[in-house]
Amino acid sequence: MKKIILFAFLLSGLVLAGCSNDDNPEPTPTPKPEYNNLRDSIGTAARPTDWNPVSETVLDPTNPDAIIVTQQEIPVPVDMQQDLMAAFVNGECRDVSAPYKEANGKIAFALTVMPRIDEATNFAIELRYYSKHNNRIYIATPFAFAPLTFSHGTPNGEGYKATWH
After folding, report:
1. How far apart are CA 94 and CA 53, in angstroms?
2. pTM of full prediction above 0.85
């Protein structure tokens, strides 16, 4: 009988030792994906029909600013048939672009902004992007017009890194 009690005592000790928290730590909970308002929120915007550039006859073609924005700089997936990007100066649309595929396979938007013939060239450009993916219009932080440069993205390099809100 003493052997049975001793055996039961040893067995219970082994069971308790096997259940310690050090040997079987609690599983680490999987973190929830972080909500990103730019990427995840759904809006109610329809595809803009009033983004019509001003007539080229009032623009100065000798001082263009080329802007290339690639898909990597867009906060959401690009819809090749529905998405649009436009460049505005003082609330006036200067150019509109649909997405296209570059020779290197990148999806991009290409815009050319020109000043009005009677306009000084020290103005800011505001990009607006319509996304069919989440029915939103994104507006980028305005940036300075830079004529005759490729400082706002290049056709086969990196696109202009706009800050969207």
Report:
1. 5
2. no
Contact 153, 109 (CB under 8 A): no
The residues facing 126 across adjacent strands are: 88
Q: How far, in Å, CA of 78 to CA of 98, rounded?
A: 10
Classified as helix, coil or strand, 68 is: strand
The span from the CA of 80 to the CA of 130, in Å, is 12
Helix, strand, coil tally for the chain in percent (to 5): 15, 30, 55
What is the C-alpha to C-alpha distance for residues 35 and 122, in angstroms, rounded to an integer? 38
| Residue whose token pair is 């000084």 | 120
Neighbours of 37 (CB within 10 A): 9
Distance CA 127, CA 67 (A): 10
Q: Give the DSSP H/E element, type plus range, for residue 113.
A: strand 107-113
pLDDT digits (tens, 9 = 90+) for 112-134: 999 999 999 999 999 999 999 99
